[in-house]
Amino acid sequence: MSSVITQAQEAPIVAADTSCSYEQVNPKIQLFVRGVIFEVFRNELLSLPESVLMCLFPRGLMLDYEIHEYLTNNRPLIFQTADFDPSIFGYIISYFRMMDSRINDEIQFISPPAPSFPGKCGIIFLKEDIEFYVLPPTIEQSVVETKPIDLARTKEKVAKQLLDEKRIFDCLRVDSSTPEESAEKNLVRMLCYSGFNEDDEWKIRTQEPHRACITSVTLSILDFSADKGPVSDPNYFPVFQKLLLFWQKPARKCWWDSAMKTNYMGVDFSVWVRRVWTLELAVLGATHTQPLVV
């Protein structure tokens, strides 16, 4: 019967195809990251930290239609992503594949997981995003005119200085005089009690192309034997249980740093640095109660 308003044939009602589900198939995806192609399986993507998935797919990832095409034509899926460094993604996916292979081969880790840990392996994901701003002196302060080319080269100099600062915890400026109850000292203690060392360096640190931004990432396996707290105390809260609060729920810490200055061609420039840390725990060998990518 035609509709009175449009005089168009009504479309027949077709029942939804429930034969395809996220849990039944594990299609291969061709992932384009700034021109570099990665072939990954869906389950590999789902094992990655939530914060990484949000960068890769800021609008989400719907697979219903593509899974149907995969089942009928057996062809890989193709997606394009932007604004993610391919070297960082390559490091992350390689690390997770290595850990997954060790789980499947039943290779002994640094320390076996605690009985109450909801998986076979925990991976700590730590990421730092830096944005820096170079401020030329005011006319009253400067006796030399600042040219745009001077500002651009000063930014290059600052970027190199920041790239050379590879020690993870130096920017927190935690020392013996830092109060024990400070958030920075608690953060360093928690990470060192789970496998980090105070002199650790970022595994990968790179500048975003054509931007005054630097991204750093490091991954570390959760070492249950590194917890130096009074684990025999029944009231003690183990570090791994604190980290479980960040499982699929990344935590962020943001602060400004204005202590940096630089000189170029006799002109002093002030530098403001904005740092954002992202901390998240990924658990391998666990059953996800809900999809991480929607």
From TrEMBL:
UniProt-listed SUPFAM superfamilies: POZ domain
Gene3D superfamilies assigned to the protein according to its UniProt record, in alphabetical order: Potassium Channel Kv1.1, Chain A
UniProt cross-references to InterPro entries, sorted A to Z: SKP1/BTB/POZ_sf
Top-level taxon of the source organism: Eukaryota
Name of protein: Phosphatase activator
The organism of origin for this protein: Schizosaccharomyces octosporus (strain yFS286) (Fission yeast)
